[in-house]
From TrEMBL:
<dbReference type="GO" id="GO:0004830">
    <property type="term" value="F:tryptophan-tRNA ligase activity"/>
</dbReference>
<keyword id="KW-0436">Ligase</keyword>
<dbReference type="GO" id="GO:0006436">
    <property type="term" value="P:tryptophanyl-tRNA aminoacylation"/>
</dbReference>
<keyword id="KW-0067">ATP-binding</keyword>
<dbReference type="GO" id="GO:0005524">
    <property type="term" value="F:ATP binding"/>
</dbReference>
<dbReference type="InterPro" id="IPR002305">
    <property type="entry name" value="aa-tRNA-synth_Ic"/>
</dbReference>
<dbReference type="Pfam" id="PF00579">
    <property type="entry name" value="tRNA-synt_1b"/>
</dbReference>
<dbReference type="InterPro" id="IPR050203">
    <property type="entry name" value="Trp-tRNA_synthetase"/>
</dbReference>
<protein>
    <recommendedName>
        <fullName>tryptophan--tRNA ligase</fullName>
        <ecNumber>6.1.1.2</ecNumber>
    </recommendedName>
</protein>
<keyword id="KW-0648">Protein biosynthesis</keyword>
<dbReference type="InterPro" id="IPR001412">
    <property type="entry name" value="aa-tRNA-synth_I_CS"/>
</dbReference>
<comment type="similarity">
    <text>Belongs to the class-I aminoacyl-tRNA synthetase family.</text>
</comment>
<dbReference type="InterPro" id="IPR002306">
    <property type="entry name" value="Trp-tRNA-ligase"/>
</dbReference>
<keyword id="KW-0030">Aminoacyl-tRNA synthetase</keyword>
<dbReference type="InterPro" id="IPR014729">
    <property type="entry name" value="Rossmann-like_a/b/a_fold"/>
</dbReference>
<keyword id="KW-0547">Nucleotide-binding</keyword>
<dbReference type="GO" id="GO:0005829">
    <property type="term" value="C:cytosol"/>
</dbReference>
Amino acid sequence: MRVFSGIQPTGKLHIGNYLGAIKQWVELQEKNECVFCIVDLHALTVPYDPKTLQESILEKVVVYLAAGIDPEKSIIFIQSQIKEHAELTWLLNTITSIGDLTRMTQYKEKSKKFKKNLNAGLLNYPILMASDILL
């Protein structure tokens, strides 16, 4: 089985992140083909501090490794370093209706929360997720 999962570089990781996801990822890599990503492009869809984003990205990679994600057994990458993510997202944008995107739960919730800083990236979030899966 192939497993894909990722975390955004925003925010600090806590024990819940470890127990709820990362610990299972370590176990999954023993019997599966695993791909783990720092989804930094997703992080750009809501307000963030550009001064600390790069540091947060590297911190999450270190956490993956320290928790036991083995780069010999799993693929670990930073989303923005794979240009095909942005390219496929752009192509999928051209065939996706805005009406479909505005009905997405994540967009509805976060657009209420970030009224002053709402950007098109948030609207396109599901398309970027589709690109993650398709690639």
